[in-house]
Amino acid sequence: ACFSLGVMVTMNQRLEADTLLLVADEFGYKIEFSDADLEDSETEEIVDSEEDLVPRAPIVTVMGHVDHGKTSLLDYVRKTNVIAGESGGITQHIGAYNVKLENGQRITFLDTPGHEAFTAMRARGAQITDIAIIVIAADDDVMPQTKEAISHAQAAGVPMIIALNKVDKPNANPDNIRQQLSGMNILVEEWGGNVQSQEISAKFGNNVDLLLEKVLLQAELLELKANPDRNAQGVVIEASLDKGRGYVSTMLVQSGTLRVGDYVLAGKNHGKVKAMLDERGKNLAEAGPSIPVTILGLDGAPTAGDKFKVYEDESEAKSIANKREQLQRELSIRTKKHTTLEELGRRI
Ligand code: GDP
Ligand code: MG
């Protein structure tokens, strides 16, 4: 049937959706498609019983219009809230970091441009942010990227906390921002709404502690929990090739505990975790839920947003990696000579 459609294939080859529909139709079958990604154990649903779940740190993304102060805020948090008793701040840029506040509670910040993180992750169906901080400069207006950030958060169902930044500036007018937000149906708490907000100066660090308290308050409402007592899985934040160390991948553990020696499959890459480092470059033996780590040992650089998972069985991980590699190769061949249903129909 394929040959008669002008599709030259062997029996081991996968067919694209359009061809499948036509071929099945030839034989009187109707095809129902399920999600293309749901083909292996990678996407198997995690089912944890309630008693195995323990609280985990919130994972926070900072978004907002350019120059409104995202980097300043992330830098301030990174520099000031270093783990108690730990000397030196965070030196490495690893795309995510975890801070411990004075009260001992922890927050994980994604240190990647929020918009990109959101779109890349969502494109791969990985939801990794629990809370979004929307930074708005109080000496400016609600700008296009502010609106975009807000709609990203709303579409993902991620609660927002509004940081009204640059209030140290003489021309700052936070009420103007509150007003504009209310025009978008976003009513901040001071105005009787349910969206938390905090005036800050990211540059000087004023009230950033209060902002973080609100993050923790929001986190408490979300009752974020995970089971640390299982094989780790999570998402790739970024990866690159390092001259001396080979492939270096920053992973965010979402569930379970990742350990040195674990066999990891991430996207179409795999390998044994040779070493694991935190954002200070310190060696770790293990990392639990909500903890970002840099790992060494993969055979390549997975893509940001790829899911990762630990496999007991090394050969299973390898065979899934190979399958994905092959699938991707086939897909890229297909997109090169893409056939539409219409074109196929014409050929018949
Ligand atoms: P981003 O593009 O959102 O990452 O913004 P940046 O953090 O790079 O900040 C843009 C500019 O605004 C920089 O010159 C910062 O020093 C300045 N800035 C950021 N936050 C504040 C603040 O709270 N007060 C003042 N006065 N300037 C700020
Ligand atoms: Mg920036």
UniProtKB/TrEMBL annotation:
Occurrences of domain Tr-type G (ranges): 55-225
Any coiled-coil regions, as ranges: none
Domain of life from the UniProt record: Bacteria
Protein biosynthesis keyword on record: yes
Subcellular localization, as worded in the UniProt entry: Cytoplasm
Keywords for the protein's UniProt record, in alphabetical order: Cytoplasm, GTP-binding, Initiation factor, Nucleotide-binding, Protein biosynthesis
Any one GO molecular function term: translation initiation factor activity
Binding site for GTP: 64-71, 111-115, 165-168
Family of this protein: Belongs to the TRAFAC class translation factor GTPase superfamily. Classic translation factor GTPase family. IF-2 subfamily.
Function of the protein: One of the essential components for the initiation of protein synthesis. Protects formylmethionyl-tRNA from spontaneous hydrolysis and promotes its binding to the 30S ribosomal subunits. Also involved in the hydrolysis of GTP during the formation of the 70S ribosomal complex.
Protein name: Translation initiation factor IF-2
Organism, scientific name: Chryseobacterium camelliae
